[in-house]
Amino acid sequence: MRDVAIIGIGHTKFGRASKTSLELFSEAALQAIDDAGVDLKDIEALFQGAALPGFEEGQVTPPGFSAAELNLNPIPATRYEGACASASIAIREAAMWVAAGEYDMVIAGGVEKALLMGTLFATRTFAMACHAPTEGPVGLTFPGVFAMAARQYSRNYDISIDKLREKMAHVSVKNHKHGALNPLAQFYKKLGDLKVEDVINSRLVADPLTLLDCCPFSDGAAAIVLCAAEEARRYTDDPVYILGTGQGSGGPLSKMEDLTKPVSRISSARMAFKHAGLKPSDIDVLELHDCFTIAELIALECMGFFDWGEAADATEEGQTELGGKIPTNMSGGLIGKGHPIGATGASQVYWLVKQMRGEAPKGNQIDPVPEYGMTDTLGGDFGTLCHIILGKGK
Amino acid sequence: MEGKEQEEMEKEYTVLTFAEYEEGLKNGKLLGLRCASCKKITCHPMPVCQWCGGRSLERMELSGEGELTTFTVIRVPSEGFEDDAPYIPCLVKTKEGPCVVGRLDYDAEQATQELIGKRVRMNGSYTYKGDKYSGGAHTCPVFEIQENKSVTQIDTD
């Protein structure tokens, strides 16, 4: 298998978009192509994450139309659906095809227009990523799933719910701080000086999670150009290499031993580390799936950055901030930057590449420029997990 | 030979269908499957054992009793559940081993962390009529707290 490099990146403004999903994806794709300095004609296949286009715009099989919008047709164009991890599995598949030698240059990314559905219907469609036969009639929502995980975390580690709510709030404070500094974030220049009390006192969505424990519904797109690593330096002086990927599958919540230790996430992260030949202590920066504050704590532990039950204290102590043990979600994460679900994995890769180029927004850039970064993307209630490890060198 | 091929093509792989499981819930029964290989119980039903993947399963009925492992109170519902909110989804570890997801029959304003770990018993079922996307109506078990119930009874007495 060949090594694979990222040579171009693109990212629309996240938030409310008046443009269509096809337009949003095209914008991110063209930005990535321009960034790479390549021609549209060089692209041999398109890999697109999109979770709910049928419900948002009455559109299925969007990638064919995206290829057509970019005058790329008739190249193969495929949709990847892994709920909120859609773009990550699209990128992982794209990297596999390039590594296998089938294509030399491809574009991969994702798009979503979830905000226009409104909270009630968006909550319904997101809940479709729960196990429909058993969790459907219960009326489970995504905040509900993570609220149940938070209560298990509280019980497992004997942290009172009130104390845990304070500790979780630090995730929201941190991620909003960095989201407010990110010009492409949904909450750019907003909520940058949140206090722990603001998070705790905001409206309960699913007890014990409040509105500010949750990421927003968002519209947006992100895309990257990948090519064979041996060709990368023809196009750019600072390629970023895909060193390892992992993927894992979960199942119905009732078949999980412990919602705070999802096997799908542990297994996917380990697969990525093994593939890359790296370990958590090698990683300099994380973009991980903070769909809810508790989700960031669970992810940090499952990926091996902290021992079980220690991520809450570590976050409170600033170990996931700039200058801490492992700076996490310096883009603002899903909470501060927004979460157009089909695009999120590509957005995470975009912001890691920005970090590795030293181009992250002021106040979010890690110094020295990180050598290794890792994404974590979660689809459904631990149904689809994907991890991607990037490096400045091979 | 031809007859055997026909038999193989028409072989039934599902020992307990989801519809039969839901029908059981409506009748107050929590139905599951016992694995001939590992002897463990699978519930809700699946085509193979949820623990070992065993293929030889037989129907059984669970006691409906177990322990509350977690819950939440939904304040912002999904479309179709507006009239139910606030309501309490929960996970229950049954006495027989498998966990099931259901609703907790409890005052949402009084539901606190102390409920976790308490003994619960299935006391009925809830059927959601479904929407355009749900493939019809579906049913889940409903549980009640056992310890609290007995405490209330003593108070009343």
Explain what you see.
- The complex is a heterodimer of chains A (394) and B (157).
- Chain A is an alpha/beta fold and 394 residues long.
- Chain A has helices at 21-36, 53-56, 62-69, 86-99, 118-126, 132-135, 142-156, 161-179, 196-201, 229-235, 263-276, 293-302, 311-316, 333-337, 344-357; strands at 4-11, 46-49, 77-80, 105-113, 204-207, 209-210, 219-228, 240-249, 285-287, 372-379, 384-391.
- A 9-stranded mixed β-sheet of chain A has the order 3-2-4-7-1-8-11-10-9, with helices on both faces. A two-stranded antiparallel sheet of chain A has the order 5-6.
- The longest helix of chain A is centred in the middle third of the chain and has 19 residues, at 161-179.
- Chain A is globular, with a radius of gyration of 19 Å.
- Chain A starts with a strand and ends with a strand.
- The model of chain A has no long low-confidence stretch (mean pLDDT 98).
- Chain B has 157 residues and is an alpha+beta fold.
- Chain B has 2 domains: 1-62, no CATH class; 63-157, OB fold (Dihydrolipoamide Acetyltransferase, E2P), CATH 2.40.50.
- Helices cover 18% and strands 34% of the residues of chain B.
- Chain B has helices spanning 2-9, 18-26, 146-156; strands at residues 30-35, 41-42, 57-62, 65-71, 73-74, 89-94, 99-104, 119-128, 138-145.
- In chain B, the strands form 2 sheets. A 5-stranded mixed beta barrel of chain B has the order 4-6-7-9-8.
- Chain B is globular and about 65 Å long.
- The relative contact order of chain B is 0.15.
- Residues 149-157 of chain B have low confidence and may be disordered.
- Classes of the chains: A alpha/beta (394), B alpha+beta (157).
- Strand 5 (204-207) of chain A pairs antiparallel with strand 5 (73-74) of chain B.
List the helices and strands and how they pair.
The complex is a heterodimer of chains A (394) and B (157).
Chain A: E1 4-11, H1 21-36, E2 46-49, H2 53-56, H3 62-69, E3 77-80, H4 86-99, E4 105-113, H5 118-126, H6 132-135, H7 142-156, H8 161-179, H9 196-201, E5 204-207, E6 209-210, E7 219-228, H10 229-235, E8 240-249, H11 263-276, E9 285-287, H12 293-302, H13 311-316, H14 333-337, H15 344-357, E10 372-379, E11 384-391
Parallel strand pairs in A: 2-3, 2-4, 9-10
Antiparallel strand pairs in A: 1-7, 1-8, 4-7, 5-6, 8-11, 10-11
Helix pairs in contact in A: 1-3, 8-12
Chain B: H1 2-9, H2 18-26, E1 30-35, E2 41-42, E3 57-62, E4 65-71, E5 73-74, E6 89-94, E7 99-104, E8 119-128, E9 138-145, H3 146-156
Parallel strand pairs in B: 7-9
Antiparallel strand pairs in B: 1-2, 1-3, 4-6, 4-8, 6-7, 8-9
